[in-house]
Amino acid sequence: MKNYQEMKQYSERKANFTKKVETGGNTVCYVLDPMEWGIQTNGTEAIKTTEGLNAALAYAKNAGYPEVFIPKGIYLIHGVGKNEFAPEREAGVKVPSHMKLTLDHEAELKVEPNSSKGYSCIYLREVENVSISGGILTGDLDEHVLSTNPEETHEWGFGIYLHGSRNVSIENMKIRKFTGDCIFLGSVGVLGIDPDYAEPEKVTIRNCSLDGARRNNISITAGEHILVENNEITNAGTVEGTMPKAGIDIEGYGEGDIDYEVPRNIVVRGNFFRGNFRSSILNFNGYEVVIEGNHSDNTISYGNGTDTVISGNVLVRTDGTLTAIAGQQVSQGFDGNNVTIVGNIIKGFGSGIDARGKDVVVTGNTISHLGDTSGVGINVWAAENSLVANNSVHRSQGLAYRVDSSKDVQLLNNKAFQLGRYAVEVDKSTEVILRGNIFNQCKGGIQITNFGKKDNDTQVLAEGNHIDFTGYTGQPAYAISFDKYSDVELKSNYIKGARNVVIYGGSMAGRVVKVADNEITASITATAAIQIEGGQFGEIVGNRITFNRMATGGYGIILKNSEDVIIAQNSIYSNTGHALSGSIVTEHSKATKVLNNLAVKGSMKLNADTDTDRGNMVV
Fold first, then answer.
1. Over the stretch 327-347, which tens digit does the pLDDT of each residue have?
2. CA count, 13 A, side-chain hemisphere, 207
3. Residue 316, Cα to own-chain centre: how many angstroms?
4. What dihedral angle (degrees, nearest 10) is formed by the CA atoms of 449, 452, 458, 460?
């Protein structure tokens, strides 16, 4: 204090069990004296303590104090309200508007054990300009009496319930062990039905430890401009858990394409997630959600969300299970998800990214050390208008990329390195473009199939890809393969070091097969460069094939049971002293047009009765 008068005033206030902190003549803090309000600090007398805290807050509000400080102690809170349908409402400690509530770091508000389906430790209904910081909130999960009736889930026990409030900040708190959620954001009323509908707005949850809630550590069913930043969010749903058991669940209530609650404009940034039972973050149906810069050991999902960005997160596990980033489908009433997944690092999961729905971009992600051979780096499933570009998948036992049951998908400039299966598998999908990808030391390059959907096309253009088997130590599969139910165009691909059939495919009448302008350098053990069985009107044009054989054998281009195929302007070399068994072999096919090809150290074996042989040179 600067003078005697201020010291005297301070002594008088202390004697009255109340402190006022003076700053420039303005009262800024009311320091609660528990004895003055009949409040117990030893964890007893819940009703009396809760009533005393609420009375003290009301007094401070009416007296014009903008801040209340709660000192060290254990405060037992009666959190069950009188509303039989929703006992979590109008319950617990009620913080008024324009109030900053600060708890000593050793002040603990502890919910009295109960058997209610819902309760609140701190309740905020339609308040504004509220700040809560410090201290500990503890639920009754360890002592709660759960119902034996499966319809009574008891998932509505909350640490802090924001019920249609705005301009609220929650910072530097430890919140734990609630039967529902550590923090719940929900609306007052139902959108489009209740005239008094109000949702949380401008809410910040920062620098908190949120642990062990039975349902979710944070649930956001309604709200706009929500920031969840720099929190430690752990162990949701691990004790007597009830779905969805997520670190953060963004899930508004709706029916069909009608929203009754709307979670919108939410940022989840810089948080640390560990040990949450089913997922770290579930954006089930939120709008305009940004998930960035988080550390996670479990799934981040955009669910049915719309306008979601998942960016710059680090997702690491050690057991090779689960999917790091997942999606579900387009929300009803919308034509696409409009999701971007960019710049994430994923390591040690079962699979990396599962991209589903419509209008999804997956770019610049690094994925490694996935689990067993069933794992997939990036899986595009039941999707439309998807772009997968500039990603890297490496050092894993399974697939790098899969496109399944999808339409209009582009895989551009991606990399795969040291994979135990194919770099890419495409199945039951149309309008698929694979361009400019680099695949090194994988068991196989590109596999194209149409399993189980013989009446629908698989359509793939594979162009300008680089497939190199040179450093692969196992027995490789094909560089490119396709089945007879698929339409394929293989163009300008560079294939090196293959030790099996390099390009192998089946075809049938009505299917399209074009193999053009590919550069194939086969190893000493490669059996054939291009082998196609069945089909009509295929085109094998302008390919450059080089063999490095240590003994006579191997084939350049082989057709079996095909008809009216064009083989033109291909160059087939054996650049050692050993000849090929055949440069071009069509003797078991019909009406092949073999035109202007160059064969070095390898004869042509054609069907003399039906083939056209013009302009070919055999050296």
1. 999 999 999 999 999 999 999
2. 7
3. 13
4. -20
Report pLDDT for 27.
66
CA torsion angle for 331, 334, 335, 336 (degrees, to 10)?
-50
Instruction: Decide: 573 and 547 in contact? Cβ < 8 Å.
Output: yes
Dihedral angle over CA of 336, 338, 438, 354, nearest 10: -70
Would you state the structure tokens that stand for residue 188, as one six-digit string? 């007052």
Paired tokens of 426: 């495409």
The C-alpha angle 368, 370, 371, rounded to 5 degrees, equals 165
How far, in Å, CA of 8 to CA of 226, rounded?
45
C-alpha to C-alpha distance for 271 and 285, rounded to whole angstroms: 21
* Mode of pairing for the β-strands spanning 295-296 and 323-326: unpaired
Query: In the 8-state DSSP scheme, what is residue 11?
Result: H
* pLDDT value, residue 457: 80
Q: Tokens 């924001």 label which residue?
A: 162
pTM over 0.90: yes
Which segment of 16-20, 149-153, 245-249, 522-526 scores lowest on mean pLDDT?
Answer: 16-20
The token pair at 391 is 């990603």
Region class of 55: left (phi > 0), else alpha (psi between -120 and 50), else beta = alpha
Q: Chain centroid to CA 601: how far?
A: 54
Q: From CA 73, how far away is CA 381, in angstroms rounded?
A: 54
Query: Could you tell me if 289 and 327 are in contact, meaning their C-beta atoms sit under 8 angstroms apart?
Result: no
What are the pLDDT digits (tens) for 421-460? 999 999 999 999 999 999 999 999 999 999 876 667 899 9
Residue 536 CA from chain centroid, whole number: 43
Write down the pLDDT at residue 454.
Answer: 62
- Using CA atoms, how far residue 40 sits from 96, 144, 175, 176, in Å, is 22, 22, 21, 21
Q: What's the rounded Cα separation, in Å, for the pair 54 and 37?
A: 10
530: which strand partners?
A: 503, 557
In the block, residue with structure tokens 């030893």: 42
Distance CA 616, CA 547 (A): 19
- Sign of the alpha-carbon torsion through 186, 114, 77, 245: negative
pLDDT at res. 3: 41
Q: pLDDT class for 193, splitting at 50, 70, 90? A: very high
Q: What one-character-per-residue DSSP string does 27-68 give? A: EEEEE--GGGGT--SBS--HHHHHHHHHHHHHHHHHTT-SEE
State how far the Cα of 357 lies from the Cα of 381, in Å rounded to an integer: 8
Mean pLDDT of 77-91: 97
- Quick one: which H or E segment has residue 14? helix 4-15
Decide: 352 and 346 in contact? Cβ < 8 Å. Answer: yes
Burial class (CB in 10 A: 0-12, 13-18, 19+), 544: middle
Residue 38's identity, in one-letter code, is G
Report the alpha-carbon distance of residue 213 to residue 246 in Å, rounded.
Answer: 9
